[in-house]
Amino acid sequence: MSQLAAVESPRWVRIGLIPLLQLVLALAVSSLVVLMIGEDPIRAFKIMIQGAISTEFGGLSNTLYYTTNFIFTGLAVAVASHAGLFNIGGEGQAYVGGLAVAIVCLALDSTLNVWLIAPLVVVGCAAFGAFWGVIPGYLQAKRGSHIVVTTIMFNFIAMAFMSYALVVWISPLGGNSTDSRYWAADAVLPKWHEMASSFGMNASFSLLNPVLLLALACCVLVWVLIWRTRLGYAIRTVGSNPHAATYAGINANRIIIITMAISGALAGMMAVNEVYAAQGRLILNFTSGFGFMGIAVALMGRNHPFGIVLASLLFGALYQGGTELQFEISSISPQMVLVIQGLVVFFTGALDRLVREPVESLFQRRAIVAANASTGVAK
Amino acid sequence: MTAPAIELKTINKRFGPVWANRDINLRVMPGTVHGIVGENGAGKSTLMSILYGFYIADDGQTLVNGQELTIQNSQQAITAGIGMVHQHFMLVEPFTVLENVMLGMEGQGLLSRARGKARKALNDIASRYGLNIDPDAIVGDLPVGLQQRVEILKALYRGAKILILDEPTSVLTPQEAGQLFEILESLRSQGVTILLITHKLREIMAITNHVSVMRAGQMVAHRDTVKTNPEELAELMVGRKVLLTVDKEPARPGENRMTVDKIGYVDSRGVKCLKDISFSLRAGEILGVAGVTGNGQTELMKVLSGALSPTSGSVKLETRSGVQVLKVGEWPDAGQMRDYSIGHVPEDRLQQGVVKSFDASENAILGYHNKPEYGQPLLNPEKVVKATREMMDAYDVRPQLPSMKTANFSGGNQQKLVLAREMMKEPDILLIGQPTRGVDIGAIEFIHRNMIEARDKGAAVLLVSVELDEILSLSDRIIVMNDGAITGEVVASETNETELGVLMTSSADGDEPKLQKHGLQKEPEKEKEEVVV
Amino acid sequence: MDMLDHIFSLLGASIRMATPLIFAAMAGIYSERSGVVDIGLEGKMLFGAFAAAVASFETGNPFLGLLAGIVICVLLSLMHGYASVKIRGDQVISGLAVNFLASGLTVTLGHAWYGQGGLTPALTNSQRFTGITLPGAEWLGAHVPVIGPFYEQVISGHNLLVYAAFAVVALTYRALFSTRFGLHLRATGEEPNAVDSAGISVAWVRYRAVLIAGVLCGFAGAYLSIAQNAAFQREMTSGRGYIALAAVIFGKWHPKGALGACLLFGFLQAMETRMQNVQIPMIGELPSQLFSAIPYIITVVLLAGFIGKAVAPKAIGVPYVKER
């Protein structure tokens, strides 16, 4: 009996097949929406895929540029959720991270070159994001306020604060009323197409830049953090069983605060890609939902860095494909991507059980039958 | 001949591959107290849940007062005159007694009139059965014994003629349990049929007319209580002769390992959970802590293991890592306590001892995860798995799969893994709570033998258990706790259950027991407008 | 009297700003008191606003617009209820999904139907709920000092939905504390086991709660697009759903408290526009952003227990599973 209970469905089913089925469901419902507005969903998806992977018009590299954003915000959600914390505040943490870029660049872009400025920007974004994440973490740990509600509130506080900062402090230094000026060109990382042309290759314009490598490095670091370090062990213990953490001498409150700092730092680093490298200036509401998208990415990627890379690619492709779509089919708004995002969150998150339970029990039954057949035990 | 109040015929219930109930037959005569005994996990609670409509049996017949019924939800059970007092109370704590009693039985949409009617009916029932209680008291403020009384009133208010009580004394003090049994007597004399589920044979012998024994999902025997005895019932429950004594040499206590001096703990609500606890624990002895659950044993274990800081007192440790005097304000955490050579098998394995979603190997280092032997600077999975294999070997943990999810091991095997983790480090001091809770018989013997072995190797063992048998057979000395204080210390070989029972109910400082303070007397009627929660 | 006029017009505006918050906060109270977290207030309001604007424009009847808003919100509520109650999924995630879906679908559909980047066509007055002058308002305003203008400018002159919002608060209060349904609802949010064992269906109580929440969100949304404004605009709720959630917490899950919080937050919103370029002695000009941030800041402060303590219903966010 205990051995039968031990049968789990195979790993590829749990982290491969089930998310895939959920994605298919989400896309199927999205197709209904496309049908509803009188367009052909197959054609729409075709255009999106082409738009996302074409190298001719920079589609693929823009996909990777979006992917970079989603890796950061997805990792942020994932790290927090390993500690049992639902960080909805990625949007605000990334937004505040943008302020770090502005401070560093506005102050130093005429004096320092890119090699000195880029590390400062990375550290600054991580620090600002961490600060914005650590306050809700502290309030959860020490004052018992619920992290979900506090991080939501902090998103809005960030919005108000940043619009004040932009209008009152930053734009008077140059730029439009709600934007900063552009950073000096030699203080900014080169974009992929610029690098390619300096090697004699021809790549079309895109916003892809070397920050993608930083994002991938963060994936590796997060994997090591969660599964190989003692801090990661403590984070997972706190997330799965806080009582066991106390029993093991792990200070859960400390872990919550540290985790939220790491999570916030990861979200904050999205600004390195978006504000520092891609846009080259600080724009009002530059996060435009990328922080929230991290929730979908982490859900889809099952909180694992590798899964997050795949999910980020998927959502990067959807975003890029979505922008292409409006050129081909004018009646479909690029906001269609939000619909798909919502449905993915719904099917992989809220309705997880709907698909998971029947599929898993199917494979469990098969495994039990196989086990009984091989041992010859009739139960 | 009158029809049985309840008759079950070949009831079957499976959860996946597990038979929770198999071919269950049961006849309960009206106006009697019928006991159902069995070990934890024997299927008693599942059976009662089927009777009460929480679960639906896979097949079989249920007859209530001779009529066949299919009970598919609690509402149908209530209509059939069946009431249930659950082990975990089903009470809305911010509501008043009255609101809890009338919940689901309001009869009309507007509460003002419903309240009036319910109040009258509640008073009638309370006076008929002698169950006095203040209808306007907030349930969350009542002591446990009175909360249970609200549960009984709820059932009676719903017209229950058949009352199921699931392990009703597990949360009660002995006084409260005594009062409960008086209530049950009075109910029986008024013609109420009572089904008493318990694993305590003393209760069966004290109050039941008939008793049925369950083992591993099956009904193994029915007896008239007067024609049986505890030994026979115990044997039926476990399926073989129980060894009530453990073979062991007399202890050879050595030097003091732990000296506890006037430890006190006041929790955040201001309740004094520990009152000036003092004792010493020596190498090579097992000191048992006896007492009804909830009298401070849990807090004591938490304080000594570093999970909780006391509010007064001190502890002196004399172990291989030197002499430490632990004081309030600089209390070590559980990690530091382990560095002081204290191993801790927690009372509640699933709540504290393991992380269910972890691999077995990850749980094998819980609490010791900072030790460099598991890899530096990163954790080295190979080293962790190797250590886990050694533990599984030595303590016969099955299956021997370090990568298997902990939740998929049986309770006994989880417990053996925890014991291996804590005992194989051979700490000077071992704190062991409820070592055999939820563990099968075979594993119990194994665990007991290992504890004696650890003692003989020189460990100082502190054992907390609610099972008096376990305390009596393993301990060399016994301290008894009641209401957060030590009420006595005895030598294990010179005492018995009766003496321990007296100590478990006596008070240390002459404080009036909590029970009498709360609304036992009826307060004058007053109309409350509403309860804002 | 100029000062008084200022104050009264500010109060009148506060009430108009508070109205959608009140509907949404009451929706939140029903849902959360039953134990279902409702992060999706924002999305439901948004979609409700869209549906109301579309239906009102197409039919020319604001009541049909309101009805459409309600129907759409009830559908979204059912989606949330299905995920939360039946599938026992994560309620926060489900609510977020509703929000994402609503902000995507409203623009997608609006863009496809009207091609104005998500905007719906402007509504004429007959397609909207417009202000109602209560009997005697003008006469009292002209003849009775202080109380007259107060009646004329603060009490009178609002549209039907504003008055409905206050009626809803009273009804909610009665429903929660004086009816059987309210007793069941509150019990379900605290101790669903007790409810189940009393023979009441936890699922049915929760479904009813989220359905009512849907209806009220429909009112909130319709108010935004066909009463306060004359069209649907992209993201026109702009965080009001979350402010309403904050009001629920601030009001400690109690209709009276939440009403107070909504009025306060409405007042702050009304101040935001009025305080621009206003110099306050000693302080100078207050940034308008401060006013939009205050509701969130004080909710954080309250949740952190610095001013009183907000205790949520015990079973909130926890899917009900029968004990084994």
Topology:
The complex is a heterotrimer of chains A (379), B (533) and C (324).
Chain A: H1 2-5, H2 11-36, H3 41-53, H4 59-82, H5 90-108, H6 114-143, H7 147-170, H8 192-198, H9 211-228, H10 230-240, H11 242-247, H12 252-268, H13 270-279, H14 290-300, H15 305-328, H16 336-350, H17 352-375
Helix pairs in contact in A: 2-16, 2-17, 3-4, 3-15, 4-9, 4-12, 4-13, 4-14, 4-15, 5-6, 5-7, 5-12, 5-13, 5-14, 6-7, 6-12, 6-13, 9-10, 9-15, 10-12, 14-15, 14-16, 15-16, 16-17
Chain B: E1 6-15, E2 18-28, E3 33-37, H1 44-51, E4 59-64, E5 67-69, H2 74-79, E6 82-85, H3 97-102, H4 111-129, H5 144-157, E7 162-166, H6 174-189, E8 193-198, H7 201-207, E9 210-215, E10 218-224, H8 230-238, E11 256-266, E12 272-282, E13 285-290, H9 297-305, E14 312-319, E15 322-327, H10 334-339, E16 342-345, H11 349-353, H12 360-363, H13 381-394, H14 411-423, E17 429-433, H15 441-456, E18 460-464, H16 468-474, E19 477-482, E20 485-491, H17 497-505
Parallel strand pairs in B: 3-8, 3-9, 6-7, 7-8, 13-18, 13-19, 16-17, 17-18
Antiparallel strand pairs in B: 1-2, 1-4, 4-5, 9-10, 11-12, 11-14, 14-15, 19-20
Chain C: H1 2-33, H2 41-59, H3 62-86, H4 91-114, H5 137-143, H6 147-155, H7 160-178, H8 180-190, H9 192-197, H10 202-228, H11 240-250, H12 255-274, E1 279-280, E2 284-285, H13 288-303
Antiparallel strand pairs in C: 1-2
Helix pairs in contact in C: 1-6, 1-7, 1-10, 1-11, 1-12, 2-3, 2-4, 2-10, 2-11, 3-4, 3-10, 5-6, 7-8, 8-10, 11-12, 11-13, 12-13
